[in-house]
Amino acid sequence: MPKLSLFSHLHGQFAANFTLNWPTRMKIAIGAAEGLAYVFRTLQAFKPNAVAFRIMVRRFHSQNVSYFSVCRYLHHYATPHIIHRDVKASNVLLDEDFEAQVADFGFAKLVPDGATHITTGVKGTLGYLAPEYAMWGKVSESCDVYSYGILVLELISGRKPIQRVGRGGMLTILEWAGPLVLQRRFRDLVDPKLHETFEEDELTRLVQVAVLCAQNLPENRPTMQEVVEMLTEHTKDPMKEDDGLHLEPVKYDPALLAADE
Fold it and tell me: Which subcellular locations apply to this protein (predicted)?
């Protein structure tokens, strides 16, 4: 992709450049949400089982067509539903106009019709993993929603999901953002590179969406379709009353943290 990945602009080779202004970040947040909310028409019509899905994706890969261009849309219309399992900044690719596409479906799983979740081996990137998945291997569409919430906090703040601090210490983005959210100090969440050039109402909406997505309990998270509506339809409020807005840091298994070092 012409502009590589979101990671490259937040933390990588373009991080020193001011490439991501506020409108661009909003565009990326909406584009990534749309990519997780719908499934590309080919998949919708094909309705693959697990084996057929893998064969189909390999065929596109052999034709040098990236996963993101095949699987433009994901959760909402596909039957069975497709779970990405590795939503993160390096898997959000950006075209010449900074339109976001969700990439790399190597860890994708199919959830059978009628199933609320499946249990599987843990894949993905620590810091983005939903607690029920990281600790018990329970994967559902809501796991991608959680990862998206972390991604949005990363997009707002310019911080990595897990920061190394001190001598061997770690600080998650939820541990850092939680107190600021609780005190409604949303402006203090914003990447200093933006120099406070952002739309206040858009920031509030985006923070609310991120917090809803990053709730510890899956049943408290919205669907990705609801997220798209919250970000694009101003008549739909993320939260009618957000006095109780809060983030609860995930307590990762020490073995997982050690393996990630």
Answer: Membrane
